[in-house]
Design a protein that fits this description.
This protein has 68 residues and is an all-alpha fold. The chain has one domain (8-64). The chain is built from three helices and no strands.
Length: 68
């Protein structure tokens, strides 16, 4: 025996399942979103860094250690 379900009902069931998963696993989804945002920020920082002047390693350490 085959059961048929219309597209509207299927969409509603899927929507309810996703909402239930979001509510039950909120921390997991939160962590995934935070990680994705961090990845985007890192990618943008790398792109920006590629457009800036290059400095040597010692200059960076001097600044970090307050010798500049």
């Amino acid at each position: 025996m085959q059961t048929q379900i219309d597209d509207g009902k299927l969409k509603e069931l899927l929507k309810e399942a996703v909402m239930e998963a979001l509510e039950e696993k909120r921390a997991i989804f939160h962590d995934m979103i935070v990680e994705a945002l961090e990845d985007i920020g890192l990618a943008r920082a790398i792109q920006e860094g590629e457009l800036t002047e290059t400095v040597n390693k010692q200059e960076v350490f001097d600044i970090l250690e307050g010798r500049a």
